[in-house]
């Protein structure tokens, strides 16, 4: 039987997974990873606290293990993430103003240069918009350096790795009716109109009771694609179990496939026991590595596409 990646490749798409470096030596984990997925995203190893624990001292060993594992097996890598308000190391929290702006851009240059030529797509900026109905930017130390911090980051990333696609990535932007979705859409439209280098929008797609799969998801995907960017589902998981969960997964794949520029799907972990949702069962493989109904729903939807 075909694998998820092979099935997705039939329409020129990829099927990816978030990976933790310290699990690569688990044979059950690595076996599923190597067999089923053709793109990997380091779950935490490329974040700022991991890659620049002290200012100007970069630390790439764990991320390199994932990148080397993937590239040696002909897989591609999504870089996640150059800039995020969360998980900032102490040295950076102590900076403000021009010093912080420079440190921020130096971080982008340092990490993107180290991986130049090896990254398919970078999540340059993650989660910069606030939740709720205001449609505003999230308050963060980066945001306090000026509204132009996001475009400065994208220009710097482009200079450091001209071959990588550059994405803006966020959650709760699945529902087109939401103010946050439309605010991100406005930013991307503005970037495209002014020549700020952005190639893709990453829609995390963490679906749960508080964020159910919306009926208008494919409208959101096609409205972003209409701006001239690719759309990627970057952190897919669906709370639940059994047939209901499988049905949601099927609909997600069908929504992506309804939009030619929805170019790939990444699930946020291999087995349920690998998920950041400690108590849930949101993924495609159970804790023993067995395929769940959701796995078959995804596979058949990919094959039907
Ligand atoms: O590995 C350390 C361990 O050494 C330490 O003793 C322990 C004590 O806190 O922490 C361990 O690190 C944890 C790490 O996951 C690995 O398990 C961190 O505390 C914990 O904060 C971290 O959580 C990650 C979270 O992002 C925050 O960075 C999750 O694994 C990861 O799945 C989650 O991913 C995010 C995306 O990056 C952005 N979108 C939302 C998504 C889900 O929250």
Automatic annotation (TrEMBL):
Keyword list, A-Z: Carbohydrate metabolism, Glycosidase, Hydrolase, Polysaccharide degradation, Signal, Xylan degradation
GH10 domain residues: 1-301
SUPFAM superfamilies hit by this protein: (Trans)glycosidases
EC nos: 3.2.1.8
Entries under Pfam families matching the protein: Glyco_hydro_10 (PF00331)
PANTHER family: BETA-XYLANASE (PTHR31490:SF88), GLYCOSYL HYDROLASE (PTHR31490)
Protein name according to UniProt: Beta-xylanase
Source organism of this protein record: Saccharothrix xinjiangensis
């Amino acid at each position: 039987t075909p694998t998820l990646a092979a099935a997705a490749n039939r329409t020129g798409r990829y099927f990816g997974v978030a990976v933790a470096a310290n699990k690569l030596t688990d044979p059950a984990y690595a076996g599923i990873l190597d067999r089923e997925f053709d793109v990997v995203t380091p779950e935490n190893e490329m974040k700022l606290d991991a890659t620049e624990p002290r200012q100007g001292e970069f630390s790439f060993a764990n991320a390199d293990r994932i990148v080397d594992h993937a590239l040696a097996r002909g897989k591609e890598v999504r870089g996640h993430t150059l800039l995020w308000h969360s998980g900032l190391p102490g040295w950076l929290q102590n900076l403000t103003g021009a010093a912080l702006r420079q440190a921020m851009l130096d971080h982008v240059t340092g990490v993107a240069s180290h991986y130049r030529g090896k990254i398919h797509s970078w999540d340059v900026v993650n989660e910069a918009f606030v939740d709720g109905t205001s449609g505003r930017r999230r308050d963060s130390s980066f945001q306090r350096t000026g509204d132009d911090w996001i475009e400065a980051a994208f220009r710097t990333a482009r200079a450091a790795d001209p071959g990588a696609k550059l994405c803006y990535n966020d959650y709760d932007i699945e529902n087109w009716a939401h103010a946050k979705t439309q605010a991100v859409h406005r930013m991307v439209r503005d970037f495209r109109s002014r020549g700020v280098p952005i190639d893709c929008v990453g829609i995390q797609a963490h679906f749960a009771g508080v964020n159910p799969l919306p009926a208008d998801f494919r409208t959101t995907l096609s409205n972003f694609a209409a701006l001239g960017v690719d759309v990627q589902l970057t952190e897919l998981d669906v709370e639940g179990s059994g047939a209901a969960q499988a049905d949601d997964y099927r609909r997600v794949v069908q929504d992506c496939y309804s939009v030619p520029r929805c170019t790939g799907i990444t699930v946020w972990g291999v087995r349920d026991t690998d998920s950041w949702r400690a108590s849930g069962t949101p993924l495609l493989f159970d804790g023993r590595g067995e395929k769940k109904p959701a796995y078959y729903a995804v596979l058949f939807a990919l094959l039907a596409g």
